[in-house]
TrEMBL record:
The keyword Acetylation is annotated on this UniProt entry: no
GO cellular component: cytoplasm
List of residues binding NAD(+): G12, V13, G14, H15, V16, G17, R42, A121, A122, N123, T146
Reactions mediated catalytically: (S)-lactate + NAD(+) = pyruvate + NADH + H(+)
Organism of this sequence: Paenibacillus cellulosilyticus
Secretion signal span: none
Location of the active site: H178
Record's protein name: L-lactate dehydrogenase
EC class (word): oxidoreductase
Keywords: Cytoplasm, NAD, Oxidoreductase
EC nos: 1.1.1.27
Keyword Oxidoreductase: yes
């Protein structure tokens, strides 16, 4: 009685933003969803369409459109506004346009009195997360990017197809940039608690088709494969966002690979990249520092260097 509704605002109502709202509604994660888009008519149409889900869901989620001025009482703001990379380019090529966009968006959101958590889902997500952190002035634990959450899910799905097991029985993480320099920390990937490296060494003939290099390449290129065939990726990342939102609002203490600001973890500073983090009602409660092999540590440092180099010209 009298408790405040759990409100989530989604900025950007394209494929990702709309799919995210759909996932939040179907999983009954929050009480209210507010859509904010550059084209009010499109935002209105998305909200109207999504409102017609309610008769077929377990709980009713209030969904409506709003503006920057209405963001002040939101618990979480999800940033989906942005473009898609063109053929032959990569996510980092979207950096300058994203910087221009969020230089305008974030100050207007903060002017509304917003004091919640940001979840960045726009590419290049690691650098977008860092710029939102700098522009908002919020503590680092309250600015989170989707990071390698979706890449980790892709890794688990691919491994599960070869073993075969339920993907949820695979534990492990993709670290670093949500992009070309990402990598799976194979030393920490396990299936039912058993390290995958032990599984492969003990059963070389049974699992001869499971090649780690191939799995890594397929994980890294999965998004591009989808993009080339249908022009966008949105269902997987929408569920990843919903998972992060649920973990936060429910104070789950769930460990998920997300884009996080590093301040000494893994020996890195002044960079935002994909690492496992404990998600709670206050945001990131703690970053989980895996004991990486020397090769994995070198790959992590390289990925951080790629991100620093790409963003060096920005006034962050």
């Amino acid at each position: 009685m009298g408790s405040r509704p759990r409100k989530v605002a989604i900025i950007g109502v394209g494929h990702v933003g709309a799919s995210c709202a759909y996932a939040l509604i179907n999983q009954s994660i929050c009480d209210e969803i507010m859509l904010v888009g550059r084209t009010p008519e499109r935002a209105y149409a998305q909200a109207l369409d999504l409102s017609h889900c309610m008769d077929f869901t377990y709980t009713r989620t209030k969904i409506y459109t709003g503006s920057w001025d209405d963001c002040g009482d939101a618990d979480i703001i999800i940033l989906c506004a942005g473009g898609y990379p063109k053929s032959g380019s990569n996510r980092l090529d979207l950096l300058d346009s994203a910087f221009e966009l969020y230089q305008e968006i974030v100050p207007r959101i903060m002017a509304s009195g917003f004091d919640g958590l940001f979840i960045a889902a726009a590419n290049p997500v690691d650098i977008v997360t860092q710029m939102v952190w700098k522009l908002s002035g919020l503590p680092r634990e309250r600015v989170i990017g989707t990071g390698t959450s979706i890449d980790t899910s892709r890794l688990k799905t691919l491994i599960a197809e070869f073993l075969p097991v339920d993907p949820r029985s695979v534990c492990g993480y993709v670290l670093g940039e949500h992009g070309e320099s990402q990598f799976p920390a194979w030393s920490h990937v396990s299936v039912g608690g058993k390290p995958i490296l032990d599984i492969l060494s003990q059963h070389p003939q049974r699992f001869s088709l499971l090649k780690l290099d191939d799995i890594e390449a397929k994980t890294r290129n999965a998004g591009w494969e989808i993009y080339q065939h249908k022009g966008s990726t949105h269902y997987g990342i929408a569920n990843a966002i919903a998972h992060i939102v649920r973990s936060i609002l429910n104070d789950d203490y769930n460990i998920t690979a997300v884009s996080a600001i590093l301040e000494g973890e893994y020996g890195e500073r002044d960079v935002c990249t994909g690492v496992p983090a404990i998600l709670t009602r206050r945001g990131i409660a703690e970053l989980v520092e895996l004991n990486l092999t020397s090769q994995e540590q070198a790959r992590f440092a390289h990925s951080c260097a790629v991100l620093r180099s790409a963003s060096a010209h920005l006034a962050l």
